[in-house]
Design brief:
By secondary structure, the protein is mostly helical. It has one domain. It is 73% helix and 0% strand. It contains two helices and no strands. Helix 1 (3-21) runs antiparallel to helix 2 (35-59).
Length: 60
């Protein structure tokens, strides 16, 4: 797993946690998914795609 993939996964985890419960009793979206979390999910999706693409290119 590349550093970019790990970074994107951690960012998504943090964003989902914030949406559900906030930080230090502040914030949160009551369990609703924010636009920022959706964006981070897309960034993770792209990181996974790039990882898989690079693995495929290495095998060719």
């Amino acid at each position: 797993m590349t550093a970019a993939l790990v970074k994107a996964a951690k960012a998504l985890i943090d964003s989902v946690t914030f949406d559900v419960s906030g930080v230090d009793g502040r914030g949160g979206n009551g369990g609703l998914t924010s636009i920022e979390t959706i964006r981070k999910c897309d960034e993770l999706r792209l990181a996974i795609y790039r990882e898989e693409r690079d693995e495929k290119d290495d095998k060719a």
